[in-house]
Design a protein that fits this description.
Length: about 400
């Protein structure tokens, strides 16, 4: 009886959570509460306290939240516009490289070779002067601007060409995958001036603060949480607006929307650029917390993993993408430590199970449960009771 009451209470709570205003407030409150509690436990409690949260856990949580932001970026275009992108890792990595270039310039003469003007990898490769595209990257505001401008322009150019040509479905997905794969091959080359295979690493500080200090790690976690919340609220406002309804109409019946006079390619391009900017912000926050950025982040496998996160959580919900990213990455951390060779098989099996049996992910389970609780609350028969009565009628007939 207690278990049944708890399930009913959860169903009623989730029914309220799914309402636009309350759902946003609940998610924002949970994220802020968890990160503030973890931050306080790290900074205020002694290391021998059972409630102490280690700096490693703070960094790990910050990385998870960056992945959650990336998953939400994919969910915006896949869940609401029907554009399955298998190349959003490219925008994530480009944003990360923009931040990585700034952090490399902050090293100065503290590098291995002691060159105040050139990063260590350039000295090692016998570069004589700083490339032109590194100019200004020692300024934080300029680095952030470039880390947003480059992915944004790339998304605009790619989206404009693809959507105007009315490329859709699996062909568009393959094109996005080819885009990130081409960038990965380009960034692997030493001649590109981005560190080649090793990428950018050995960062010292950001905005004058030591990256290894506990306070800096906590500040990065809080900044990641705040920007994730802002991205979630802005995305929620977009999908609930008139613009969002048009986007859903383009997803469900693009030909009909075009017949009604909507320039569907314009909506697609705008949403694609917006999604790419969110992914770039996630990449910028990811690099100082992880401490490295290399061409491996462009790997198509990474972008496919993001799609798995969204599918597990439930696409077309925003909050489902966040939950899916957190759960899958936590499971990845645990399973790679216990069974490192079996993790990829587990991930593949998870995607197959979700696709076949849970097409709407975890959010779909909660939604069905919430609908059942709502029907019961209003005095209606549950789905199981209705199906049982139907079977009885069929038997009597």
């Amino acid at each position: 009886m207690n278990t049944l009451s708890a399930l009913r209470s959860f169903g009623q709570w989730f029914a309220e959570f799914r309402q636009p205003g309350r759902g946003s407030s609940w998610l924002v409150g949970i994220l802020l509460l968890v990160t503030l509690t973890m931050s306080a436990a790290n900074l205020l409690l002694p290391a021998d306290s059972p409630l102490y949260v280690s700096t490693y856990t703070i960094t790990l949580m910050g990385k998870y939240l960056c992945f959650a932001m990336l998953a939400m970026a994919v969910d915006i275009i896949w869940g609401y516009c029907g554009i399955l992108s298998l190349g959003h890792g490219a925008f994530f990595a480009l944003g990360g490289y923009g931040m990585g270039m700034y952090l490399m310039r902050q090293i100065g003469d503290r590098g291995v070779y002691g060159n105040a003007d050139l990063p260590d990898f350039m000295v090692f490769l016998n570069w004589q002067e700083l490339p032109w595209f590194w100019f200004g990257m020692d300024q934080f505001w300029f680095a952030v601007l470039m880390a947003l401008l480059v992915p944004g322009l790339l998304a605009f150019g790619f989206g404009w060409l693809a959507f105007r040509s009315r490329v859709t479905g699996v062909y568009l997905s393959i094109m996005t995958q080819a885009l990130t794969y081409a960038l990965m091959l380009a960034f692997f080359r030493n001649e590109m001036g981005f560190g080649g295979n090793n990428g950018l690493t050995d960062f010292k500080d950001i905005l004058g603060f030591d990256l290894q200090a506990d306070g800096t790690r906590v500040a990065l976690l809080l900044a990641t949480t705040l920007l994730l919340v802002l991205a979630f609220l802005s995305s929620r406002a977009i999908v609930q607006s008139r613009l969002g309804r048009v986007i859903v109409a383009v997803r469900d019946a693009e030909a009909r929307a075009r017949f009604l006079g909507y320039r569907t390619e314009h909506y697609k391009v705008w949403l694609f650029v917006y999604s790419a900017l969110i992914a770039a912000v996630a990449g910028m926050l990811y690099v100082p917390q992880v401490g490295i950025i290399n061409p491996g982040e462009f790997s198509p496998l990474n972008s496919i993993e993001v799609v798995v996160w969204v599918a597990v959580g439930g696409r077309g919900t925003l909050y489902g993408a966040i939950v899916g990213a957190l759960l899958v990455n936590y499971a990845k951390t645990r399973f790679t430590a216990l069974m490192p060779d079996a993790w990829l098989f587990a991930l593949g099996a998870l995607f197959v199970i979700v696709t076949v049996y849970l097409p709407r992910g975890l959010a779909g389970i909660f939604e069905r449960f919430a609908i059942g609780m709502r029907r019961e609350k209003h005095g209606e028969k549950s789905w199981r009771e209705n199906s049982g009565q139907l079977s009885a009628r069929e038997v009597s007939a």
